[in-house]
Amino acid sequence: MAFFENFVSVIRQKWLDYVESNREWLHLQMRMTSVRTPDGGRRPSSFLILGVVNALEPKLGNLMVPFYQLNSDEDALVEVLGLNFDPEMALAGGSLPTTVDAENEEATMLLDSAEADES
Questions:
Q1: 3-class DSSP state for residue 86?
Q2: How far apart are the C-alpha atoms of 98 and 95, rounded to whole Å?
Q3: In angstroms, rounded to a whole number, what is the distance separating the alpha carbons of residues 118 and 115?
Q4: Neighbouring-strand partners of residue 35
Q5: Helices (H), ranges, 22-73
Q6: Contact present, 46 and 35 (Cβ < 8 Å)
Q7: pLDDT by residue (tens digit) across 50-84?
Q8: Is the pTM of this model over 0.70?
Q9: Euclidean distance between the first and final Cα of the chain, in Å?
Q10: Which residues pair with residue 8 across a beta bridge?
Q11: In sequence order, what are the residues at sequence separation of 6 or more whose Cβ sits closer than 8 angstroms to the Cβ of residue 88?
Q12: With pLDDT > 90 as the criterion, what percentage of the chain qualifies?
């Protein structure tokens, strides 16, 4: 079991690194499709997460066939891999609010882009 716990920890870190590097397009994608998480946040779709982590960690492909044969529910697979959390909250150390207001998020993004244009 220690192998799997370590493996899941590596996958989680690779996922967070990916999210950090691709925030802009992930925010756009999540405006159309996102999933509520147990931590009160939201995350991208399970299919997107599974595709990304399989590309980032080739060893995961060896486990996906038996996992998928046991349970083909993509949300359950994300849960088993320990990825059913809001990645933005994790990156911020849990300091983000527990709910996300789309209007406030859009306003924040507009303010951020306006500040970047001024620089």
A1: coil
A2: 9
A3: 5
A4: 43
A5: 23-32, 46-56, 60-70
A6: yes
A7: 999 999 998 888 888 888 888 889 999 999 999 99
A8: yes
A9: 50
A10: none
A11: 19, 41, 96
A12: 54
